[in-house]
Amino acid sequence: MVLLESEQFLTELTRLFQKCRSSGSVYITLKKYDGRTKPTPRKSSVESVEPAENKCLLRATDGKRKISTVVSWRLCLFCFVFF
């Protein structure tokens, strides 16, 4: 999976939509993202620290190519309200 900046993600997402326009599907998923890349141990004495700003992980795939980006939750909310 390729982690892209927001503008690059939108460009690649447009390309995925154009490629799958005649036949095929594009799947988009949204997930809360706290910045961790590794799972935390179950019996951890370390307190979980909340990030300063909540973020969302956006993923898109056409079944062959996967792209993703991390954006603030406000941008996600903005996108869902207007689209």
From TrEMBL:
Main location per the UniProt record: cytoplasm
Pfam families: SRP14 (PF02290)
Gene Ontology molecular function terms on file: 7S RNA binding; endoplasmic reticulum signal peptide binding
A single cellular component GO annotation: signal recognition particle, endoplasmic reticulum targeting
Top-level lineage group: Eukaryota
Entry's localization field: Cytoplasm
UniProt keyword annotation of Protein biosynthesis present: no
Keywords linked to the UniProt accession: Cytoplasm, Ribonucleoprotein, RNA-binding, Signal recognition particle
Gene Ontology terms: biological process: SRP-dependent cotranslational protein targeting to membrane
Keyword check for Electron transport: no
Summary of subunit composition and partner proteins: Heterodimer with SRP9; binds RNA as heterodimer. Component of a signal recognition particle (SRP) complex that consists of a 7SL RNA molecule of 300 nucleotides and six protein subunits: SRP72, SRP68, SRP54, SRP19, SRP14 and SRP9.
Family: Belongs to the SRP14 family.
Primary role: Component of the signal recognition particle (SRP) complex, a ribonucleoprotein complex that mediates the cotranslational targeting of secretory and membrane proteins to the endoplasmic reticulum (ER). SRP9 together with SRP14 and the Alu portion of the SRP RNA, constitutes the elongation arrest domain of SRP. The complex of SRP9 and SRP14 is required for SRP RNA binding.
Name used for this protein in its record: Signal recognition particle 14 kDa protein
Originating species: Phodopus roborovskii
Gene transcribed to yield this protein: Srp14
